[in-house]
Design brief:
The chain has 623 residues and is of the alpha+beta class. Helices cover 18% and strands 34% of the residues. It has a four-stranded antiparallel sheet, with no helix packed on it. A four-stranded antiparallel sheet has the order 5-6-7-8, with no helix packed on it. Strands 9-10-11-12 form a four-stranded antiparallel sheet, with no helix packed on it. The two termini are 31 Å apart.
Length: 623
């Protein structure tokens, strides 16, 4: 969910990037405070107010353990229109969550949410441009029947009201129901709404778009078959389904489909994008399909692939391009394995090469656009930092080995292969000889103080148990290396004149980085060494408050022996420590499945991690 929300925010930023410089200049550095109340204000959402400003809502626990919903309005000049603590949207007992909002056309907004005051129900509220609630205090119930109502989605009806859809378990499994509420808060489809899909299996509402004629198109994940598929339905303001009963199949291919996103197209039609997981390879791909006003398919029946680099793309979101096409954003793992955000425009005919065959990078999580950019621009100030990366349950990570990435270009002397090694110098063999030298470096040990030696020894015992690897201490104490890519040669019967080697080394504590690079460079005969990236080994003081507080909170949840460890993997922690941050890593996840295609986390460990994070944050807030 966090990733899909990030893509939605990114697309919104792209669309409003044209605001004039004069307007931007009136906003203060580091942002304008919308709420100064005590407690936590989290999970915000925003819509335009039709006059250059915005309405923002958020979850708020100022009243105690339960989260309520508050909001505020800010104008185009950055002036907060409401009270400094915000306006209460709903402060009923129980948690209010999973909210969505639309402009109400008068400078306010209509909000819907999942409400737990009496089981999971869907409620709504209209807040006008002056911050006054126009419907009942704490919202109106959009469905009064039994079962649970969850996953609410909302679009404008074009007349000041809203069309709302949700997943509904009144019949046992989850079905799709809808409601039409007018500007005054009257329910136009009865007290309990009307059904759009009541097929066997669960249907989970995912996204909805207005159809341009006062109706809407709802898209959901459907489990009527043997796997998760995507279905959609168009309905009018009277709640009449306009497409096939129980929905039109968007994608029912083998494997699981997920994360659908819909945008209007062609007066009553829509473009729907989704993530499809191949049942054999388990690779993810982003697909798209266009439907006409009658629910007919306009592109390839199986959908079109939004990006030709299709094997590691996921979590798509879409906005309209204003010409019956769509702009699609997704997470993309084609490069270093870290997710970048790519975007592509798809026109009304289904062309997917308008911005290149693979889309264009909108945001990179590494390199110049990632954490190093934020640090270089002084957008982050030294502080205590907890990074939510997977670690063993009872052992937060306080340090990582160093990193050294080298690119080496070897030049040989060509000759006919039948004469080698008597004649010619093979660039490939030069690379192999250097790798032999690097392999020998693995046998070296480097001096560290007794305190760090004990931390490494304890870390080794933990990681041996987690990974079932014998003598992990060698990995932590010694230089490890990987020749990731070797390219070279011209033909099998010609002595290689060129060879390139991409070499990554993980550097232990006590190993001087400069001397290491100098030694390798000296051994690279006929080779040019280019240093691509270096980071010294790093560690956070295990006695600092960040470490002691985190370990204390872990012990409260997990009990048993809790202590910090160091690890061999690199992370953004190294960049933060270099700039004066105290950093600790702790998070849920099955360690043995890290970076695998089936990387996973149990719900139980996720819940426990959230309690630990909450405990750490409370300790810092009360300090």
């Amino acid at each position: 969910m966090v990733r899909t929300r990030l893509l939605s925010v990114l697309l919104a930023v792209l669309l409003v990037a044209g605001l004039c410089a004069a307007t931007r200049a009136q906003w203060v550095k580091d942002g304008v405070s919308l709420c100064g109340a005590t407690g936590w204000q989290v999970s915000s959402a925003i819509v335009a107010d039709d006059s250059g400003g915005a309405v923002v809502i958020w979850r708020d626990n100022r009243g105690g353990a339960d989260y309520d919903i508050y909001g505020n309005r800010i104008n185009a000049s950055g002036h907060v229109m409401g009270p400094s603590a915000g306006v209460a949207v709903c402060v009923a007992p129980g948690d209010q969550a999973d909210f969505h909002l639309i402009p109400d056309g008068t400078g306010g907004a209509i909000v819907v949410w999942r409400d737990s005051r009496s089981g999971y129900k869907v409620y709504g509220q209209r807040i006008d441009g002056t911050g006054v609630a126009r419907w009942a205090t704490n919202g109106i119930s959009l469905c009064g029947t039994g079962g649970y109502q969850v996953n609410p989605r909302i679009v404008p009806d074009g007349t000041g009201g809203a069309l709302v859809a949700w997943s509904d378990s009144r019949s046992g499994n989850y079905d799709i129901y809808v409601q039409h509420v007018d500007a005054a808060g009257n329910l136009l489809l009865g007290a309990n709404g009307t059904s759009m899909c009541v097929e066997p299996g669960d249907q989970h509402a995912q996204d909805m778009t207005a159809d341009g004629t006062g109706g809407a198109i709802i898209v959901w994940i459907d489990n009527r078959g043997t796997s998760a598929d995507i279905y959609a339905q168009r309905f009018n303001s009277d709640g009449d389904a306009l497409w096939t009963t129980n929905g039109v199949a968007v994608c029912v291919e083998d494997g699981n489909q997920s994360y659908p996103s819909a945008v209007p197209s062609g007066g009553g039609g829509a473009i729907i994008v989704w993530q499809s997981t191949n049942a054999v390879t388990t690779f993810d791909a982003v697909y798209a399909q266009r439907f006409d006003a009658g629910g007919g398919v306009l592109w390839d029946p199986a959908g079109i692939i939004a990006c030709s680099s299709w094997d590691h793309t996921s979590y798509p979101r879409a906005v309209t391009d204003g010409a019956d096409g769509a702009i699609v954003a997704w997470y993309d793992f084609r490069g270093s394995g870290e997710p970048d955000v790519y975007v592509q425009r798809i026109d009304a005919t289904g062309r997917t090469d308008l911005w290149g065959t693979c889309g264009v990078v909108a945001f990179s999580t590494g390199g110049e656009s990632g954490i190093r950019r934020l640090l270089a621009d002084h957008m982050l100030r030294p502080a205590d930092c907890l990074i939510a990366e997977p670690t063993p349950a009872r052992h937060p990570s306080i340090g990582q080995k160093g990193l050294c990435r080298l690119g080496i270009e070897f030049t040989g002397v060509p000759a006919h292969g039948s004469l080698y090694p008597a004649v010619g110098v093979s660039a490939i063999m030069e690379a192999m000889e250097l790798l032999g030298y690097v392999k020998g470096l693995h046998g070296r040990e480097f001096p560290v103080d007794d305190h760090l030696k004990e931390i490494i020894a304890r870390s080794s015992r933990v990681l041996e148990q987690e990974f079932k690897i014998h003598d992990v201490s060698d990995i932590l104490k010694k230089l490890s290396f990987n020749p990731g890519i070797i390219k070279g040669g011209e033909k099998s019967n010609v002595v290689a004149q060129q060879c390139t080697l991409e070499l990554e080394l993980r550097v232990p504590w006590g190993c001087p980085m400069g001397s290491l690079i100098a030694d390798i460079s000296a051994q690279a005969r006929n080779g040019k060494v280019v240093v691509e990236e270096t980071n010294d080994p790093s560690i956070t003081d295990p006695s600092c408050p960040l470490v002691t507080i985190t370990c204390d909170e872990v012990h409260k949840v997990w009990s048993g022996s809790v202590f910090p460890i160091v690890q061999w993997a690199a992370s953004d922690a190294r960049h933060l420590r270099l700039h004066g941050f105290n950093v600790i890593q702790y998070g849920p996840g099955e360690i043995k499945s890290l970076h695998a295609v089936d990387e996973r986390v149990t719900i139980g460990s996720l819940e426990k991690a959230s309690r630990i994070y909450h405990g750490v944050m409370e300790r810092y807030m009360s300090a």
